[in-house]
Amino acid sequence: MSDPPLAYLNGEFLPRDEASVPITDRGLLFGDSVYEVVPAYGGIPFRVTHHLERLDRSLAAIGMQNPLAHDAWRSVFERLTEQLPGEDQSIYLQVTRGVHPIRSHVIPETITPTVLAFTAAQPPRDPQAASRGLKVITLEDIRWHRCDIKATTLLANVLARAQASKEGADEAILIRDGAAVEGSASNLFIVSNGLLITPPNSKELLPGITRDLVLELAAQAGIPLAQAQIGVAELEAADEIWLTSSTREVSAVVQLNDQPVGDGTPGERWRQMDHLFQAYKEQLRRGVDRHGP
Ligand code: PDD
Fold first, then answer.
1. 16, exposed or middle or buried, with CB in 10 Å at 0-12, 13-18, 19+?
2. Which end of the chain is more exposed for a tag (fewer CB within 10 A), N or C?
């Protein structure tokens, strides 16, 4: 039998099943914590600096400092990913405010953060599934106004995703004040008359690492692009809709609220971007820019 997978918890690597946190952890009691999901293609973490900088920003926004230096995080990732050599994986990390014996909304003055990370195999992208595309529904965005913080308080996201599943859809696009903001766990792009559009970063959405890469790749390829609000009518009339995330990569949406998007199959621009994205991943796998830009 193979060894049980190891997780990282507060400076130690231990079998995942033995890694646990006390019931008085503020991450559990208050959702007082932030997280990251870092894909590792062929075992090599993707855009690590970007993920760690976003972690720094999430922590700063809740008045915490990163308990680990970036190099220390990189070593943790290396130790975790080497358990599944060469495989595509998804690294999860979380930093909570920490454990405190008294349950109080007041943040204790002295408290040691809880730091954990683990990795899980991510099935390699299935090109056939990718070219079938996604079905999505729209739902009202009932989340708070600091969606730029990658906080673990994800109940609204989880319920949106559950509603999507209930309606036979893969994801929900969230609508706030008449504008499409992002998916429950993904960023949103549309193609409208040849123009690639994504909502600008703001406190209403997560500044996605995949989103940034798509913008970079589009700029390099000379694809006309704009960062602008996407009204519901514009979403409904879009020639193409894409959702991006560390786990979904760049996914084409082929059905929106029971209506086909474009001709109901992934569009030309998506094909082009997916190709660019896969080529970028391949470069990483081959060890070019191993530690990412
Ligand atoms: N979620 N928006 C939301 C609300 C998200 O939860 C995510 C990612 C994204 C895309 O961000 P990125 O490209 O950096 O993964 C946008 C992760 C994958 C999750 O919660 O599992």
1. middle
2. N
